[in-house]
Amino acid sequence: MSLFDYKVSDLHELLHKKEIKVADLVDESYKRIAQVDDKVQAFLTLDEEKARQTARTLDAEFPTNSNTGLLFGMPIGIKDNIVTKGLRTTCASKILENFNPIYDATVVQKLQQQQTVTVGKLNMDEFAMGSSNENSHYQKTRNPWDLDRVPGGSSGGSAASVAAGEVMFSLGSDTGGSIRQPAAFCGVVGLKPTYGRVSRFGLVAFASSLDQIGPITRTVEDNAYLLQAVSGLDPMDSTSANVNVPNFVSALTGDVKGLKIAVPKEYLGEGVKESVRQSVLDALKVLEKQGAVWEEVSLPHSKYALAAYYLLSSSEASANLARFDGVRYGYRTSNADNLLDLYKKSRSEGFGDEVKRRIMLGTFALSSGYYDAYYKKAQQVRTLIKKDFEDVFEKYDVIIGPTTPTPAFKIGENIDDPLTMYVNDILTIPVNLAGVPGISVPCGFDNGLPLGLQIIGKHFDEATIYRVAHAFEQATDYHKQKPGI
Amino acid sequence: MSRISNEQVKHVANLARLAITEEEAEKFTKQLDAIITFAEQLNELDTENVEPTYHVLDMKNIFREDIKQTGLPREEVLKNAPDHQDGQIKVPAIIGE
User: Fold this and answer.
1) Interface test with A, best of B7, B29, B57 (most A CBs within 10 A)
2) CB neighbour list of residue A133: distance below 8 Å, 6 or more residues apart
């Protein structure tokens, strides 16, 4: 049995009873990484020396430290697009191969206040563009449940490391499903918070109006603790929201009596595999047994979300990624005749194919003569999609459907066709466009591959999502299954 | 009919400051054409009187207090610069001979 089979609250108690030390937790992490990471390939950079040093310091001050919150001493992995001072941060791109940030992201500062221990940086699709981790410049992370399959993406390393027991939990980021989809594929719990709930300061921007950082954990309770730690208004991020951060864990009452669930027919329709559909219907039965009621509803503009998303996210990316010019930081070409040449060659040699494709699409959509037809149109469609959610939430507490149309696919299966790859995110993208929160929790298996149940809530109502997810989790044992790796 | 031409792709690449080969131009033309064709399904929707959503929370003009703060130290900033000299970031000549 691994120490990471315990919940955060259990480990905290063991620490207090002096049955374990922080050093044991950190040791568990690196031992497991040594054991499995040459197969899983979740980590891009390890920070072992410093982590062990931190563990010694924390252990030394533990008896007298009155400030030990629940996350004290917990080993965490951080997605490699969240900057960590002095610890290489690459976004899985060649263009940031040697980039050592000179400050910490707000979420990293908040974790330090909680005295977690950063184990290392986790692989992802380059600049978070992708759904399989195959777009990483460095390595292909594998799904711990089946090493021939993808872990999902873009936070593939974040989900795989938790599933493989390499860390207690991790942070990922979600622009169109990048936390929820890999969480579903790897059989763990992943939440995309409401847009504005968590500061994006220090998250390398992909699409600023959609990006959110969120927690990936083995249980719903741990997820609530981790979100609690990283949430809140930040003067360094003008899009972080000035709203109260409730006690998420106290929402885990197990009571869903009278809860009204909406099930969009578009989420169980064409393209959704039968095993996935069945797992959602089974999950609804579990919740029904606990006193919740569900009805079929419609989110009529769902089918347009994918197209709107690719125009908007690529447009924003093309602007955000303009900063990588080979001048102030990052990769610079070794043979440039003049400044324009330096920009072009540094960018062309530094970015991978998918990133270039999206920069091109975004530049096109924003270019003179096309702006109204593509960019503005997509923003208008976004309004319609957001309205769909608002209408449903007038009558219902949560929306439930699958996280992904299928379980994890094989490495190499979709890589040659961008459009087929994009379809993976069809059930997660609308949530980002509307800015509402959504979670994926384990809800079954298809031939040994995990499936995820998506629970979507109102703006800033993560508490209700957690309550439903927790009630479901307590009634099932999918989250207790572990990959055989 | 194709939505985007090889010429347009090269123009866009230049705007995006990407150097692309003839081969890449051809590949991107095909792929972008497919994506844009796919995106044109948005035209099925009448959005005549629909306001665009730029920000889901409808926040505007968020300011923090205008307090003087120390910037990052120069040597820190230069740590990640590919080339620098005398405390300045170095680039190739901007004005040609």
Assistant:
1) B57
2) A123, A124, A125, A140, A141, A150, A151, A152, A153, A154, A156, A157
Let me know if residue B67 belongs to a domain. no
Looking at the complex, report in whole angstroms how far the Cα of residue B1 sits from the nearest Cα belonging to chain A: 17
pLDDT tens sequence across A452-482:
999 999 999 999 999 999 999 999 999 999 9
| Residue A63 pLDDT grade (very low, low, confident, very high; cuts 50, 70, 90) | low
Is residue A434 predicted with pLDDT exceeding 60? yes
A296 burial (CB, 10 Å; 0-12 / 13-18 / 19+) is: exposed
- Chain center to CA of A131: 11
Q: CA–CA separation, A3 vs A28, rounded Å?
A: 7
Q: Is residue B68 part of a domain?
A: no
- Give CA–CA dist A473/B10, Å, rounded: 52
ipTM of the complex: 0.95
Give chain B's domain count: 1
- The reply to whether A97 touches chain B by the CB within 8 Å rule is no
Give domain status of residue B27, yes or no.
Answer: yes
Give yes or no for a contact between A405 and A131, defined as CB atoms under 8 angstroms apart: no
Nearest to B59 among A239, A337, A363 (CB): A239
In a mutagenesis test of the B interface, which of A83, A309, A351, A361 is the best target, namely the one with the most B β-carbons within 10 Å?
A: A361
Task: Please answer whether residues A159 and A180 qualify as being in contact, where contact means their C-beta atoms are separated by less than 8 angstroms.
Answer: no
pLDDT single digits (tens) B32-86: 999 999 999 999 999 999 999 988 987 888 888 899 989 889 999 999 999 999 9
Tell me if B6 sits within 8 A of B31, measured CB to CB.
no
Whole-number Å distance between alpha carbons of A98 and B82:
10
- For residue B21, pLDDT beyond 70: yes
Largest CA distance in chain A: 71
Rounded Cα distance between A259 and B92, Å, is 64
For residue A79, indicate whether it is catalytic: yes
Rounded-to-integer distance, Cα A399 and Cα A299, Å: 10
Is residue B23 in some structural domain?
Answer: yes
> What is the nearest CA distance from A322 to chain B, expressed in angstroms?
8
The two beta strands, A293-297 and A260-264, are parallel
β-pair partners for A439: A191, A455
pLDDT band of residue A67 (cuts 50, 70, 90) is low
* Residue A266 CA neighbour count, 13 Å, CB half: 17
pTM for this prediction: 0.97
d(CA A380, nearest CA chain B) in Å? 4
Residue B15 belongs to domain with CATH number? 1.10.20.60
